[in-house]
Fold this protein.
Amino acid sequence: MPPIYKICPVSEWRVAEAAGAYRGSAVDLKDGFIHFSTAEQARETAAKHFAGLHDLVLVSVDADALGPALKWEPSRGGALFPHLYGDLPLTAVRSIAPLPLGPDGRHAFPHAFA
């Protein structure tokens, strides 16, 4: 299975690194699961939920490592989105990349991003 992605503030990710697991954003905690996006969904997620925000990271996660706690559920426009019911173990993280704002005001995804 291809990787899935989490966009979050650097400060939030630093808390996860110190704790040994990512427990989710305030929205994730409210909804009861951690929201992820596929590569095809990540740019729209950034534009819709993180517009204009600086100091973000793009966390690439091995979806296969999450087991049955990862569910694919309909969300925006009926598309299936990955939702993790539980903490994200740092052992499932493939990479972390900065997600800066480009000159056009949109987030500049890494060149290697699928």
